Amino acid sequence: MEKIILVIIAIAIAYLFTPVSVKGSLYVVTQGAAVIPMPNTPIKVYSLKNFRQSLYQKQSFANQECMGLPDKTETELDYLKNGPDHHNAKANYELIVSCETATLINEINMPLVETIQTNKDGEFSFSRSRLDDLVLIAEGKRRVGAETEQYLWLLVIPKEGLLSQKLEINNGNLVNDIKIQAIQL
């Protein structure tokens, strides 16, 4: 009986320390419903616990410093006009940019678990501990006609999956167009 219990405990411990294989894809769905893979895009992998603390600090900053700011486009135009309010417009523009979600998330300075990169088809893979919740942050750009679209994705990976997990990072994970205060982990 003791041997059976020891074998069960050994199997449970081995299971806990066996990494989970994570495979996924990163893509954008256009307005015309075309799926566009995002090749050669770096993806930062953070511990959820540590990232959550850093995100809360950025959200607190935004609550204190970023409320009631003027419109970015109007402020940019005021600055470019070089009128009497030129210096004020420049300061407001810099504050607006510093309060954007992409700027605040990019300023998070903490140790990474690792950095991975998508392949030419927008696919990625890595192994993770089954004991840790993780956050993936990816930032990418793509040319659409004469314009460049910018993307910032955030995805929480919960502790699940027996031996593997399949992930998709797409429009549903975009955070660049929402206020940082609205992000919940």
Walk me through the structure.
- 34% of the residues lie in helices and 31% in strands.
- It contains five helices and eight strands, in the order H-E-E-E-H-H-H-H-E-E-E-E-E.
- The strands form two sheets. Strands 1, 2, 5 and 8 form a four-stranded mixed sheet that branches. It has a four-stranded antiparallel sheet with strand order 4-3-6-7.
- Helix 3 (72-81) packs antiparallel against helix 4 (86-98).
- The relative contact order is 0.25.
Secondary structure blueprint with pairings:
Layout: H1 2-17, E1 20-29, E2 35-37, E3 42-47, H2 48-65, H3 72-81, H4 86-98, H5 101-106, E4 114-117, E5 123-128, E6 134-144, E7 147-157, E8 164-169
Parallel strand pairs: 1-8
Antiparallel strand pairs: 1-2, 1-5, 3-4, 3-6, 6-7
Question: Short description, anyone?
Answer:
This protein has 185 residues and is of the alpha+beta class.
Q: Give the total of beta strands.
A: 8
Radius of gyration: 21 Å
- The proportion of residues in beta strands is 25-35%
Tell me the quaternary state.
Answer: single chain
Q: Which secondary-structure class do the elements indicate?
A: alpha+beta
Count of alpha and pi helical runs? 5
Biggest sheet record = 4 strands, mixed
- Write down the overall mean pLDDT: 87
**Can you tell me the overall shape?**
elongated
Give helix % range: 25-40%
The H/E string reads HEEEHHHHEEEEE
Distance N to C terminus: 44 Å
Query: Which stretches are low in confidence, meaning pLDDT under 50 for 5 or more residues running?
Result: none
